[in-house]
TrEMBL record:
Residues 29-96 form the DUF7344 domain. It holds the Pfam family DUF7344. Signal peptide: none annotated. This is Helix-turn-helix domain-containing protein. It comes from the Archaea.
Length: 110
């Protein structure tokens, strides 16, 4: 987890809605990755939780699906989970979209 010496994360704050917000500079790093953007677009907050294998099939776009699954599991889903954009259970390999904040929708529209 990113944090300062006090163990606090300076890039995340509580927003007015009560949801954790992500600092603007962290937003660029978080959604600057095309696989993370495709992942968020492939998940619907109104949908049931999705198995990692199903999500992999949705976002692989011709890439090696095993490599995509490993990258999702070890890198991208934990980052999206920490930012509050998805809920990822790495033991069960299940992903669930969380309601997206407006700032994330703006990035995904690009």
């Amino acid at each position: 987890m990113i944090g300062n010496r006090d163990g606090q994360n300076p890039t995340r704050t509580a927003g007015a809605s009560g949801q954790t917000d992500v600092a603007p500079e962290e937003r660029c790093r978080l959604l600057g990755d095309s696989l993370r953007r495709r992942t968020l677009r492939a998940l619907d907050p109104d949908e049931r939780p999705v198995a990692l294998s199903e999500l992999r099939d949705r976002v692989a776009d011709g890439s090696d699906s095993d490599t995509v699954a490993v990258r999702l599991h070890h890198v991208h889903l934990p980052k999206l989970d920490e930012a509050g954009l998805v809920s990822y259970d790495p033991e069960r390999n299940v992903v669930e979209a969380r309601p997206r904040p407006d700032w994330a929708d703006r990035y995904l529209e690009r």
